[in-house]
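Pipeline run #58 for the internal structure catalog. This entry was flagged by the ingest filter as a single-chain record with no existing model, so it goes straight to prediction. Upstream metadata was stripped on purpose; only the residue string is passed forward. Reviewer on rotation: M.T. Logging verbosity set to normal.
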Amino acid sequence: MAAALAGAVVLGGLSGCVSTQEKNARARLVADRTVNGRRPLRIAARSRDVRVVRVTLVRGRGGRGAVVVELRNRGAQAVADVPLLVGVRGADGRRVRLNGGRGLDWFQTHVPAIGAGETTTWVFVPRRRELPAGRPWAVAGRAVLAPAIPSIVATAIG
């Protein structure tokens, strides 16, 4: 009985328990993202590796809509926490920022990760009731180098 109990304790320790350090690192990441969402998004330098491939405005009923951005990581390493500023350029040439203000969720101003050589699509749905008229634009800022991103394959069931 004692041997079985000792074996269960050892196996329990090896079964993927999360350490206090890992919990603290995760909590700090969430806190940093929350605090950063309270500040306006500023892009000091454009990304060398992440390129904006296409920006599209999708409009729905009542002027509601979304900005859809296709991004490509041309670098040899995965990147994370890619700041992304989006907006619309009006007929007068002025740029209107859609996600550059305060109080936005971190995921409304950043792309979580893009694998090396990969392309991803990011969607921003503004809080505004209507999207302004004009041509959409997007600027990707410098990102953090990340470890390899695991592949996730989705398939239809049925």
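catalog note: Confidence is low (pLDDT under 50) at residues 1-14.
catalog note: The radius of gyration is 21 Å.
status: ready for reviewer M.T.
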